């Protein structure tokens, strides 16, 4: 069904329940739909159905989320429809339904669909930006007869954009929810019990009007509400700080290499200082995924748009990009440049442990560099296998493995990109080949490194 299709009449729920209308196809929109359905809400989800299907398939590694999604869709507690090409069509659909149901209440023989009682409209901006122009959907909501229905917006945008959208909406109950709490691989549980819930309000101290999200707010370990501009800035600042910590430790890891110091032990010592804390201090190949790179890009745009030079941010991005090639350079140096036509094994392909997504992962630049030397790559990545298979379907130098130790005796080196914490390393089996290990994740413990027969190269870790 195309996005220009008319709103489906199947979205008229026969249940007497609050309906949350979610507009978007991102993992955040999917997770929100499942969580709200778990809280006994009926969800009408409007999206590009082809993209929505791809997203659900891509996140198949989140088995619990996918199982709940399928169950709620079958039960029609989540009802998916194509996003119409204008907000007017969607809004008019629900308002005409409400008026029709009111005019029919005296005729017992007419169909018994009950009035759709909307609890909120939840707009995921990254999903609608390419379909609805700002001036069109804002005008449509301003012409709506249901001005007391809250509007929630989510998404990563340039600083001030969400505030501007909220100001354009001629209603009081407008909110902004940034997904700073969502953890890839644990999306459902991290939203059901969020670590930090931030809420931007157009009208101060009005969050009680957003009843649909109160259970999630109450379950949050930390919660803060403020005006939308402040929450936008806080969202961006949090993400930029996390990225900065990662790049700072990666820069220090290079100095640690030259000083024969283990950066892993240094980061643990740093974490003992309450002023520093232990989060995001692990050196490795850098950060990837969608959230941090998108956030930094939007923050950089905000700086440029306001003529504010941000050299620290530019350094963070530069270090992160360069770090993704560092493990290859260590491999090249180990073999003194004689690496042509070798065979290597790679463990992990996702941008972080527990995820099945490879967006921004170090495996992409690593594979490109290895293939430029005609090196055959044997890759084991249980969660990201399907993603890699689709991305490199025509690459003859890539072979995807079903187990980590498969064909290990054919390889002359082992790379580690994103090893799952549940993976039990078999040091005895690794020692049978005694091949060099290039650990871009610093996944091996100090004891495991000492037990190795072959050489070990990590990020800021002397063997």
Can you walk me through this structure?
The protein is an alpha/beta fold and 463 residues long. Helices cover 41% and strands 14% of the residues. The chain is built from 18 helices and 14 strands. Strand 1, helix 1 and strand 2 (42-47) form a beta-alpha-beta unit. It is elongated.
Give the secondary structure arrangement, pairings included.
Elements: E1 18-23, H1 27-38, E2 42-47, H2 49-58, H3 63-74, E3 78-82, H4 87-103, E4 117-124, H5 125-128, H6 134-142, E5 151-154, H7 161-168, E6 174-176, H8 187-192, E7 197-201, H9 214-219, E8 223-227, H10 228-259, H11 263-271, H12 291-305, H13 311-323, H14 326-334, E9 343-347, H15 363-371, E10 376-380, H16 385-391, E11 398-400, E12 413-416, H17 427-433, E13 437-439, H18 446-451, E14 456-457
Parallel strand pairs: 1-2, 1-4, 2-3, 4-5, 5-6, 7-8, 9-10, 9-12, 10-11, 12-13, 13-14
Antiparallel strand pairs: 6-7
Helix pairs in contact: 1-3, 10-12, 10-13
């Amino acid at each position: 069904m195309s996005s220009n299709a008319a709103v489906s009449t199947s979205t008229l729920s026969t249940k007497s329940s609050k309906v949350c209308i979610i507009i978007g196809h991102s993992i955040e929109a999917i997770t929100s739909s499942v969580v709200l359905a778990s809280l006994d809400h009926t969800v009408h989800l409007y999206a590009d159905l082809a993209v929505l299907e791809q997203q659900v398939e891509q996140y198949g590694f989140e088995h619990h989320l996918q199982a709940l999604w399928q169950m709620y869709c079958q039960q029609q507690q989540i009802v998916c429809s194509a996003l119409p090409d204008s907000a007017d069509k969607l809004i008019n659909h629900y308002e005409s339904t409400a008026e029709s149901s009111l005019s029919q209440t005296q005729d017992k023989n007419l169909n018994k669909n009950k009035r759709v009682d909307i609890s909120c409209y939840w707009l995921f901006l990254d999903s609608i930006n390419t379909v609805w122009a700002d001036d069109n959907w804002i005008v449509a909501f301003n012409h709506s007869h249901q001005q007391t229905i809250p509007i929630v917006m989510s998404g990563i945008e340039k600083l001030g954009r969400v505030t501007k959208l909220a100001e354009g909406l001629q209603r009081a109950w407008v909110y902004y929810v940034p997904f700073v709490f969502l953890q890839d691989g644990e999306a459902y549980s991290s939203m059901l019990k969020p670590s930090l819930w931030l809420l931007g309000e157009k009208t101060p101290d009005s969050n009680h009007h957003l009843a649909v999200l109160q259970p999630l707010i109450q379950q949050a370990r930390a919660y803060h509400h403020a005006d939308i501009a402040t929450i936008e800035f806080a969202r961006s600042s949090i993400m930029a700080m996390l990225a900065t910590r990662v790049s700072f430790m990666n820069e220090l890891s290079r100095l640690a290499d030259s000083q024969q110091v283990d950066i892993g032990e240094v980061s643990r010592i740093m974490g003992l200082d309450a002023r520093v804390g232990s989060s995001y201090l692990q050196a490795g190949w850098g950060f990837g995924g969608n959230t941090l790179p998108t956030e930094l890009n939007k923050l950089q745009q905000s700086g440029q748009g306001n003529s504010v030079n941000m050299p620290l941010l530019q350094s963070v991005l530069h270090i992160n990009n360069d770090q993704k090639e560092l493990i290859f350079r260590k491999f090249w140096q180990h073999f003194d440049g004689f690496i042509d036509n070798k065979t290597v094994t790679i463990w992990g392909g996702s941008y972080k442990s527990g995820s099945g997504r490879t967006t921004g992962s170090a495996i992409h630049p690593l594979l490109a560099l290895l293939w430029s030397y005609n090196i055959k790559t044997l890759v084991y990545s249980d969660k990201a296998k399907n993603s890699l298979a689709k991305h490199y379907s025509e690459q003859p130098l890539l072979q995807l493995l079903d187990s980590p130790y498969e064909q290990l005796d054919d390889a002359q080196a082992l790379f580690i990109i994103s090893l799952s914490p549940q993976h039990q390393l078999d040091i005895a089996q690794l020692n049978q080949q005694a091949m060099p290990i290039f650990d871009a994740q610093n996944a091996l413990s100090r004891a495991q490194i000492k037990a190795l027969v072959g050489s070990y190269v990590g990020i800021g870790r002397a063997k």
